[in-house]
Amino acid sequence: MHLPDPFRMNDWDNRTFFWMFQALQFAFLAVVSLDLVGYYIPIAREALAFLYLTLLPGVLVLKALRFHDLGTIETLLYSVGLSLVVVMLTGLTANIVYPLLRYTRPFSFSILIITLVAVVQVLLYLALTRDKGRTTENPRLAVPSSPAVPFLILLPFLAIIGTYLRDNHHMVTFLFLLLVLIAVIGLAVGFDRFIPKSCYGLGVYTIALALLYHTSLISGYVWGYDIHHELNLVNGVLVPGLWDMTIPYNTNGMLSVVALVPIYSLICDLDPVWIFKIVYPLLFALVPLALYRAVEKQTDARIGFFSIFFFFSFFTFYTEMISLARQQIAELFLALTVLALIDKSMDRGRQAFLMVAFAFAMIVSHYGLSYIYLFSLVPAWLLLAVPERLQSWLPERLARVAGLLRPDPLGPAATTPIRTLILPYILIFAALAFLWYSTVAEGTALATVTGIGDKIWTTLFMDSAGPKTAQGLHILTSQSTTPLHSLAKVVHVATQGLIAVGLLATLLKRERWRIEPEYLAVSLVFFLINIAGIVVPFFASSLNTSRLYHITLIFLAPFAIIGGIALYERVTGWIRGIRAAPFMGTAYQALSAFLVVFFLFNSGLLYQVVDDNPTSMALDTTGDKPVFNAREVQGAAWLFSEGDERPVYVDGTRWWLLLGFDPGYQRYIPADASLLEPNSYLYFGTYNLVRESIRIETHGAVTTAMYTDADRFVRGHHRVYDNAGSVVYYR
């Protein structure tokens, strides 16, 4: 089936493009106008506003720069990335310029809608004038006729239904079914059944989105850790209608939070909570798609699919990352950078534009990821530049010494390989990072990395290093709670081994695996970062070991698959009878079985089935997790609505909930109840009340926690608020 390709509008002729674009814009403005006068059409405004913000500006930029014939996936990805850049820059500019013109609320709907439409019209003019005379036939969207297409499309809807039933009826059957189906898809690709290669890209996106939705949509409120602070900052922009860029928090300098979320919230007319829970997963699911395309272009479709299956099977992708909105957006820009980096056929000027634009967007989205990528670029560049210099200089030098070389000035110049990772790009990235982090949010993001460096240096050369200071080493050496959890640790360590084997195999057989030198160089540095996260004190704890490993998998995931193939070929070369064993007929079958086991451990499905210390946020509804119900949120809102500037004591889990309201007054409950200050509040959530227990945490490179009786902390306190789901005491 062939339809006009809406994802490649930049390849359309100008006349068709102009009228289609204006029709979309008119539909969007008409729906918004009807909504403003009281005629609300369900979902229409949210959907059209999302498309208007997420696709159209980027399509216009691509057309203005005459990007053509990129293909459906690349055009979609670059359109989204450039659209987000335009939207963030629009918000930043409005926040700076409008107050100078005495408009004190730049982040208000009326101002933003006019500004965005004006920006889009300027981009439309540039697109039509700079791309004059394009008369080629409009591209068609090739939709595979396979029955796998509707099956794959239904996966995110199964996640939505499953989370609704979980929240409202405590029924997780549909979420069980979803995870089982994803595991079956992994096996189907390994055995080359049902899912054709033409559907791999669609499958990568829909599986990723389903995994994200199966966790993000639990509870009617944001859940997790940092996201509560991000929500507090967003509300701090929406309420006054202005972003105060001087507030000294690292996160306050991230436009992915303080500009992008308020704009989506105002234009889509959605509460910021639902921007985090619905819109951001739609964007973040593009990260696996971009990485799949980058790997596929270097190897083949099956290696690309299994690389990304491994990447999003790791639990951090759909658990920790749900509560890190700023890193979701930054990873999208890093994935787009990877895709542009390995494309040697693109015009160098246009490629440089994409890489610099995505570099800036990454910097203003998440400082941690930007620092890691920046610090990896210099050694990666040296890995590429030094051998090139030696190769071009050393033979000529030796020949000149021997008197054998007679250079011909009229002869052809020596050819050098095209390299996309060059020193000017690194310098531009470093300059942009320094300028942004040193000026916004009182320079706290720059001070943070300096502090981490000082702590690492002090521990390495002055204090003792070990499991207490190296979080990754602590995870490896700590005793697992059950044999099944011990087996899971072995599986995780095995993936590290496969990555090491894959890197070695790639270095030894470059002609077979066809990994671009730039990608390989950065991957080698990321592998060293992975090792540093295990052994270097305080290195991983600044992000968490699991988050650091997740980041390194952005580059390293394909090498686990290459390592698995190389290992399979070597073992079956020694013992041919292995091929007759179940799931061992081919390397892909063996890999699919291993990755499905890896996925079942990470998703928590195995632990839930055998009731062995369940870990799944979605499947387990009884444990103490940072997932909060409406009554807990209501109690926290009441507490801070009182306006008292008194300390608020809360345990380690509920601490994150209160962070979203006012981070200035909350305190961790101390282990010694006598240390609670007088004239202070004590907040208990549902878990505290039902279990009569509170979580006491000790923070350091490794966070330790214990549960203790709650009764001894409320003696001498007066209950001033109680809604049967949360309680506030006053002393």
UniProtKB/TrEMBL annotation:
TM region positions: 17-41, 47-65, 77-101, 107-128, 148-165, 171-190, 202-223, 247-267, 274-295, 301-317, 352-384, 421-439, 520-542, 548-568, 580-601
Q: Note the InterPro entries from the entry.
A: DUF2206_membrane
Q: Which domain of life is it from?
A: Archaea
Matching Pfam families: DUF2206
Alphabetically sorted, this entry's keywords are:
Membrane, Transmembrane, Transmembrane helix
Protein name, please? DUF2206 domain-containing protein
Give the organism's phylogenetic lineage: Archaea, Methanobacteriati, Methanobacteriota, Stenosarchaea group, Methanomicrobia
